[in-house]
Amino acid sequence: MTGQVRTVDGRVAGRRGQETRQKLLDCLREMLSTSPYRDVKVIDVARMAGTSPATFYQYFPDVEGAVLEIAEEMAKDSDGLKELVAGKSWAGKSGVATSEELVDGFLAFWRKNDAILRVVTLGAAEGDKRFFKIRMTVLNSVAKPLTDAVKDLQSKGQADKTLDPAAVSGALISLLASAAEHGKAFTAWGVKVKDLKPNLAPLVYLGVTGKKPPK
Amino acid sequence: MTGQVRTVDGRVAGRRGQETRQKLLDCLREMLSTSPYRDVKVIDVARMAGTSPATFYQYFPDVEGAVLEIAEEMAKDSDGLKELVAGKSWAGKSGVATSEELVDGFLAFWRKNDAILRVVTLGAAEGDKRFFKIRMTVLNSVAKPLTDAVKDLQSKGQADKTLDPAAVSGALISLLASAAEHGKAFTAWGVKVKDLKPNLAPLVYLGVTGKKPPK
DNA sequence: AACTTGTCCTGTCATGCCGTCAGCTTACCG
DNA sequence: CGGTAAGCTGACGGCATGACAGGACAAGTT
Lengths: 215, 215
Known about the structure:
The structure is a homodimer. Chain A is mostly helical. Helices cover 69% and strands 0% of the residues of chain A. The first copy, chain A, contains 10 helices and no strands. At the A-B interface, helix 6, helix 7, helix 8, helix 9 and helix 10 of A face helix 6, helix 7, helix 8, helix 9 and helix 10 of B. Chain B binds a DNA duplex through helix 1 and helix 3. Chains A, B: This is TetR family transcriptional regulator. Chains A, B: Keywords: DNA-binding, Transcription, Transcription regulation.
């Protein structure tokens, strides 16, 4: 399906080429997690990969192009997140468990990919369609099934029907993303890292069901 | 209090100098709202201001330094946001009104300053202490009084005491910030811009009071 | 008006990164 | 072993950076 990997000038990349390409991506990823995005230079990435800048340009049009590649890979990875919500129950205590697992799983994914997600988030906020799409893919992996869950609860009369299911689930997912990205803010507010989940989960439960979580 | 404005090399700036300096800041602000942060160059800002790059470096150590200046100005502005919450009632319908005004006011502020806040948010996420502090100042303008409100409700037995007031209010403010910054995501979810407030406000009310909003 | 003083701006320069290309090396295949 | 395509890099023009010295300018003094 995904035609062979090609260099910028149209050659097909062989075994060795793909290795170099991958090494460049790995080094870029590393670079992004250690220095500000604005300061990431092609020459540094190339040096770290033990190759030359010219080689970088053989595989990627520019830094942004390579970042997009990493981001797309991560977006594929995010597909598994839908299992955090799909088919789960929101009734009573099992609902509390669902919300806790959702918070835990989503935060873990975001933190694991925090460096690349920072850049994706910035790009999306700046209006770049490609980054926006990637961000939506990640968010939707959870937001879509969560919207379905809210709709389901509404149709059973167990949730406020005046609310838009997409808006509610979108808001809750935005909250989780923001909390994951800016965990330090909570620390500054005196909230310990381990207290984050126990405080976010009830909010999620509350948002989805409209009810206080049972003890 | 704030000692005179000084150039990088220590001279005090006079009338004309301050004008130039201000023009550079204005152009940088403009630049940030029209092109990606990564691509903002000193030479472009200088050109737009009708001056030379060398002049820019007389007033600011680098682009980041100038951005910090703009951000600090905005942080001062954010002080007025505390009126959105301080001294407001959360009881019954007036509580609903409070939450609506909070959502409205906060979103408006964030959108008005979206370009600079994007950069601040990125810097904070990347671990830069100066940007982090500025972001906290903005968030705290609302988060602090909101935390007090939650504490107050808890002490009156009108809210779940097992929740950490700082965590709850921090989460709600994070949600608002995220919604403001990524309004387009909601549009993509089929939520119209004018439906954002009516959906966010109940969530805020719900989070603060733990109760369903009265109709 | 000429002079003085301190502010303000810019031409210029060394440095370093960007992005491209021609050309060399390496690997694979018949 | 020659042919072919992949893989890599040195070198180069172009541009941004950041520093400095010196000239332009405003305002007050004599």
